[in-house]
Amino acid sequence: MLSYEEERRPIAAGMLGLATKLLDAAKRGEMRRGREVHQLDLGYPDLSLALEKPGRAGGLLAGDRASDAPLRGAAGQARRLFDLFQGSHWTLLGYEVGRHSISPRLNLHIHMIGTQAELNDDAGHFTAAYAPSPGDWFLIRPNGYIGAIIGAHELGVIDSYLADVGVVPREF
Predict the structure, then answer these.
(1) Which pLDDT tens digit goes with each residue over 72-82?
(2) For residues 123 and 141, is the Cβ–Cβ distance under 8 A?
(3) Which of these, 90, 100, 85, lies nearest to 135 by C-alpha position?
(4) What is the 3-state secondary structure (H, E, C) of the chain?
(5) Fewest C-beta atoms under 10 Å: which of 92, 96, 111, 143?
(6) Are 139 and 148 in contact (CB under 8 A)?
(7) Structure confidence by residue, pLDDT tens digits, 12-60
């Protein structure tokens, strides 16, 4: 199981190094803050909570920060991915998945994106950022990072992954 230290210690060390570099630059009168100060490029692709089955070559990868995208609801209303991610829950996005057998779980919100789904990517922003294939599932962690990207033929992996991180099936 992933520990807080496995994930955050390298980030903390990098930020301390950046702070030292910025302080030295300020002392020399060369203070310029670049992209790294905003921490938008942080990611966790090589850690135990980043899972891709099968592996991917393009688009966002497991461990990357999940991107926002404007979508349309089934009734035509504007929706944003960041609104779906907001809160302390996990979010599972299915792209052109049709029927599925993902069981409801506590702290898991499931949303479908596709031409015949709850959400439509008519402007192509989701597909441009995520580069999904029909049947792909994207599991977004509560901190806004992609925990797993699972292909259509690997659905069993989702249940195992969720169980490993403590997202348990809902009791009815």
Answers:
(1) 998 999 999 99
(2) no
(3) 100
(4) CCCHHHHHHHHHHHHHHHHHHHHHHHHCCCCCCCHHHHCCCCCCCCCCCCEEECCCCCCCCCCCECCCCEEEECCCCEEEHHHHHCCCCEEEEEECCCCCCCCCECCEEEEEECCCCCEECCCCHHHHHHCCCCCCEEEECCCCEEEEEECHHHHHHHHHHHHHCCCCECCC
(5) 143
(6) yes
(7) 555 566 566 666 666 776 666 555 544 444 555 555 567 778 777 778 8
- Other C-beta atoms within 10 Å of 156: how many? 11
Q: Which two tokens stand for residue 68?
A: 């926002």
Q: How far apart are CA 172 and CA 52, in angstroms?
A: 31
